[in-house]
Amino acid sequence: MRFWEKLSLRARLGLLYAALLAISVVVVGGYSYWNIWQLFIRNKSCHIRARAKPVIEHWLRDNGLAKADSSLSPLKSQTALLLARDLTSRDTVAIIVNRKGDIIANGKRLPEEPVAPAPDEQYLRRALSGENEVTYRGQVKGKPVLVMLIPLRPHPASARVFGVVQMSTTLADIKAILFRHGAMLVSLMAIILILGITTGFWLIGISLRDLQGLLASCNQISRGNFSKVVSVKNRHDEIGQLALSFNHMLEKLEAAFASQRRFVANAAHELMTPLTGLRGSLEVLLRGAQDDPAAIARLSRGMYKEVNRLIRLCEQLLGLSRLENTVNVCKQPLVLSEFFDDFIARARLLAGERSVVLQPGVDARISADPDLLQQVLLNLLSNALRYSATETLIVISWKLLPQEVEIRVSDQGQGIDAEILPHIFEPFYQGKSVVVSGEKGIGLGLSLAKAMVEAHQGTIRITSEPGEGTTVYFTLPLQ
Q1: Percentages helix, strand, coil for the chain, rounded to the nearest 5?
Q2: Nearest to 411, CA basis, from 387, 378, 429
Q3: Taking CA 324 as the corner, what is the angle to CA 322 and CA 330, rounded to the nearest 5 degrees?
Q4: Domain check: are 334 and 372 in the same one?
């Protein structure tokens, strides 16, 4: 087992293929050899029996035994000897056995004629009981012979048997033919095995070549290089599909690491802005501004503002990390109409002079965390208010889909450029949109909204046209 584990995948597949091919070839070759052997035996037996039948019928008529159906006629040695000699030839010898199992005639006369084997009692009893097709293989002086037993009866329809003709012939000619056939079969099997195993190892090597590319790419990834893409020739087999999936995963990993680098850089930038302001204010205080009450009040308000910004940033970052585990989501049944009746009142207070319109759809019950759902809508509403003019509408609506509900937040603001949309949900990502109302955010609102929606096993997407407005769609599962 340890030896097998030390082998490479190519060696294992090659050995398995070679073993299966060898077993298949041996089984097919052995079965073919056995069938041909049986065919020769059957043909030879049928030929000898067919040649003996008219001789036996003629002998029965000549000796008046064809009509002896009323009683068993004992065989006489002289009469049986004539039949045995008529049935004996250069390659076949016949002997006659009476009802008692005694040999009463032997057809061998010439030295070149074969020697008859002694009758086998087991098969002889079967023939004496009336069984016609009794054939078996015996031995004479260590050489195989084919033995056939033919019951002697007055006529074919008679049930009375008064003797048995045993005819035996050598199998040397069949063995010679089968030896040549076996030698040819072994040679052919050897050629098939050599060519099959060689071709199999070659094909396995070609098939596993792409795996070597995958291994090289993995080594490059371990060194931090994500640009090594695996090229495959056959994209339809399992290895080709694996390579395509690996390349797709590589692209995702590269995008994830790039997003992580941007996240770290943006987080550091967002943290440095308030920290720089705090350091500047403290430096002014340390240089003697503590004697000026107006300066202290101004600097204190600025530092308070920057500290609040840091606290808000940390809270949102903690919210992102907390939402990575869906255990923190406390779902409960919610009726959409009741939830939005409560939310729209709060949304209009937040909007102030802005117009927030609710367009209700078919009422339904969903399974969601009400606090998180409210936070998602507030984040989307805050963005809509920040980038929309005062006289425009903000519309909140929903509609039922199979197994889920789709909620929409639409504005008529300046819209989002097409090159910004793929990155809009990345943490700290901020486009070049101009803030119409209020201060610019820190770039975590949409990231939080996406994390909250996905924590509910939902999806979120954005469509936007520059100058026409933006619509955010997110889905939640029905109860």
Answers
A1: 55, 15, 30
A2: 387
A3: 65
A4: yes
Distance, CA of 7 to CA of 416 (rounded, Å): 57
Q: How far is CA 75 from the centre of its chain?
A: 76
Domain identity same for 37 and 159 = yes
The residue whose two tokens read 């068993």 is: 72
Looking up tokens 């002896």 gives 68
**Identity (one letter) of the amino acid at 451?**
A
CA 395 – CA 409 distance, rounded (Å): 6
Closest C-alpha among 146, 132, 160, 145 to residue 60 = 160
Residues 39 and 169 in one domain: yes
Helical spans, DSSP H, in 367-417: 370-386
- What element of type H or E holds 304? helix 293-322
- Asked whether residue 230 is domain-assigned, the answer is no
- Could you identify the residue written with the tokens 């003629």? 58
Residue 230 buriedness (CB in 10 A; 0-12 / 13-18 / 19+)? buried
Query: What CATH number has the domain bearing residue 380?
Result: 3.30.565.10
Query: Residues near 459 by Cβ (< 8 Å), separated by ≥ 6?
Result: 453, 474, 475
**Distance, CA of 460 to CA of 383 (rounded, Å):** 15
- d(CA 427, CA 448) in angstroms, rounded, equals 8
Residue type, 398: W
pLDDT confidence of residue 147: 93
**Confidence bin at 396 (pLDDT 50/70/90):** very high
Q: Tell which of 322, 353, 368 closes a domain.
A: 322
pTM for this predicted structure: 0.48
Residue 137: phi and psi, rounded to 5, are -110, 130
- The structure tokens 């056959």 sit at 234
* 280 & 148 share domain: no
Type and span of the H or E element at 12 = helix 9-62
Q: State in Å, rounded, how far the first CA of the chain is from the last one.
A: 54
On whether the CB atoms of residues 255 and 425 are closer than 8 A, the answer is no
Q: Are 413 and 388 in contact (CB under 8 A)?
A: yes
Q: In what order do the strands lie in the sheet with 404-411?
A: 355-359, 393-401, 404-411, 469-477, 460-465
* Domain enclosing residue 447, as ranges: 326-477
pLDDT given for residue 148 in this prediction: 93
Side-chain-side CA neighbours of residue 139 (13 Å)? 3
CA-to-CA separations, 147 to 41, 128, 255, 314, in angstroms, rounded: 10, 15, 84, 101
In this structure, what token pair is assigned to residue 284? 């002014």
299 and 330, same domain (yes or no): no
How crowded is residue 373: how many other Cβ atoms within 10 Å of its Cβ?
22
pLDDT tens per residue, range 77-97: 888 898 899 999 888 999 999
User: 52 Cβ partners below 8 Å, 6+ apart?
Assistant: 87, 94, 150, 165, 167
- What pLDDT was estimated at residue 70? 44
Q: How many domains does the chain have?
A: 3
